[in-house]
Amino acid sequence: MHVHSVRTRRSADEFPRDQHLAWKIAEVAADPVAVSADTEAMVINRVIDNAAVSAASVIRRPVTVARRQAQAHAVSTGANVFGIGGGYSAEWAAWANGVAVRELDFHDTFLAADYSHPGDNIPPLVAVAQQLGIGGNDLIRGLATAYETQINLTRGICLHEHKIDHVAHLGPSVAAGLGTMLKLDTETIYQAIGQALHLTTATRQSRKGLISSWKAYAPAWAGKVAIEAVDRAMRGEGAPSPIWEGEDGVIAWLLGGPEKVYEVPLPGPGEEKRAILDSYTKEHSAEYQSQAPIDLARRLRDRIGDLSQIATVVLHTSHHTHVVIGTGSNDPQKFDPDASRETLDHSVMYIFAVALEDGTWHHERSYAPERAHRPETIELWNKISTVEDPEWTRRYHSSNPDDKAFGCKAVVTLKNGEVITDELAIADAHPLGARPFARDNYVNKFTVLSDGVIEPQEQERFLSVAQGLANLKPGSLSELNPLVDAVVLDKAPTTPDGIFQ
């Protein structure tokens, strides 16, 4: 692994193109290194994981709207939209499927200097592969590159510190992954990466205050834009450059400024792309920093007993957790029972209260309006707060996998003065957790979430195809699309017409 120092350069500086970060990433993407067996297996796990959460979200309103937009772009030889037949223009299929994957905040994650959900790379790459008749092995190679790119950008460049949304790392990673999958040359990939980054930098207001459905659309937008960027680059069009390092580039004006130096690790020539193995999926449908608190609440509830006797709960946690989903955000919406689902899944106070009361977490029932409005829940919810603990912040940023942690310590004070404390560093489903997710867990997640949505025979067909992804021949990737029962799709909400018909 090579670590590249990335900083702003003046236009007058001598700065050869092969030193640009976009070029370095393009070189990694163009390197035809083989994918290891464990990386291939994890790619397949995440394809199954994405299908699971897409099945669970398929008739939610944002997913329905995105699907109907895509259906207005039917083509004879196109990509598949999750759950339905027909062919659709790849960028619109990626859009619809990206929203379905992201809607429930229920797929994979990688946290370091910034945040990421690298499973967001899967819908755009699958869509392009389906439209162009790519085989399963090349799709796997492309996804390994996409994960490698997004995860390493997330390790090296903090976006949220400057209120830039994390999809700014996703646009370049999709472009790089497509470059690998399509076996493009370094020059073409370089131009596509620059264009994709230029168009996917947006502010984090999408995750602040009253959070809307755009939180699900944002990564789908990045995937759609990246597909279009690669298409333009393949036709010989260029991009702003150097996109990260330029005098008016991303670092100079959107991130740390001209004096800031970022250190971005990337594989060297011939080095395997294994970053996907450092990412982790979710057992619970909630922001990743809530995964360990949910497991901790489930463990604590029996020790506490009568929850009405709680006076206060203080969660000692990292800076990120405190300011993004905790009371350090200063968002009153995080205590509002009428808040959107997207807002509640970014309120660790709400999540901890419900997990304490129910001893479980469900992607629908735990967020239902009637659940959020229970008087006893509101009372408990308002007793919970977070504080930043420097040790948890240090562990959040640790480069040592055995030390890195995304959990918290809960200090529960009862009305009689008794104090109950417990802590959990990592979620049970984390690779180093109490119950690490393996293939059987991914299959079970798909089976559970698609129950009543996809017929059992179709579930089995999809799982068989997905687990044999590496052997899928060119032109057969449409088999990766599990069809949803028409009776289920008929229950999707009615939505107004838009421009696209």
UniProtKB/TrEMBL annotation:
<dbReference type="GO" id="GO:0006099">
    <property type="term" value="P:tricarboxylic acid cycle"/>
</dbReference>
<feature type="domain" description="MmgE/PrpD C-terminal">
    <location>
        <begin position="284"/>
        <end position="468"/>
    </location>
</feature>
<dbReference type="GO" id="GO:0003994">
    <property type="term" value="F:aconitate hydratase activity"/>
</dbReference>
<dbReference type="GO" id="GO:0047547">
    <property type="term" value="F:2-methylcitrate dehydratase activity"/>
</dbReference>
<dbReference type="Pfam" id="PF19305">
    <property type="entry name" value="MmgE_PrpD_C"/>
</dbReference>
<dbReference type="InterPro" id="IPR042183">
    <property type="entry name" value="MmgE/PrpD_sf_1"/>
</dbReference>
<protein>
    <recommendedName>
        <fullName>2-methylcitrate dehydratase</fullName>
        <ecNumber>4.2.1.3</ecNumber>
        <ecNumber>4.2.1.79</ecNumber>
    </recommendedName>
</protein>
<comment type="pathway">
    <text>Carbohydrate metabolism; tricarboxylic acid cycle; isocitrate from oxaloacetate: step 1/2.</text>
</comment>
<keyword id="KW-0816">Tricarboxylic acid cycle</keyword>
<dbReference type="InterPro" id="IPR053420">
    <property type="entry name" value="2-Methylcitrate_Dehydratase"/>
</dbReference>
<comment type="function">
    <text>Involved in the catabolism of short chain fatty acids (SCFA) via the tricarboxylic acid (TCA)(acetyl degradation route) and via the 2-methylcitrate cycle I (propionate degradation route). Catalyzes the dehydration of 2-methylcitrate (2-MC) to yield the cis isomer of 2-methyl-aconitate. Could also catalyze the dehydration of citrate and the hydration of cis-aconitate.</text>
</comment>
<dbReference type="Pfam" id="PF03972">
    <property type="entry name" value="MmgE_PrpD_N"/>
</dbReference>
<comment type="similarity">
    <text>Belongs to the PrpD family.</text>
</comment>
<keyword id="KW-0456">Lyase</keyword>
<dbReference type="InterPro" id="IPR045337">
    <property type="entry name" value="MmgE_PrpD_C"/>
</dbReference>
<dbReference type="GO" id="GO:0019541">
    <property type="term" value="P:propionate metabolic process"/>
</dbReference>
<dbReference type="InterPro" id="IPR005656">
    <property type="entry name" value="MmgE_PrpD"/>
</dbReference>
<feature type="domain" description="MmgE/PrpD N-terminal">
    <location>
        <begin position="19"/>
        <end position="260"/>
    </location>
</feature>
<dbReference type="InterPro" id="IPR036148">
    <property type="entry name" value="MmgE/PrpD_sf"/>
</dbReference>
<comment type="pathway">
    <text>Organic acid metabolism; propanoate degradation.</text>
</comment>
<dbReference type="InterPro" id="IPR042188">
    <property type="entry name" value="MmgE/PrpD_sf_2"/>
</dbReference>
<dbReference type="InterPro" id="IPR045336">
    <property type="entry name" value="MmgE_PrpD_N"/>
</dbReference>
<comment type="subunit">
    <text>Monomer.</text>
</comment>
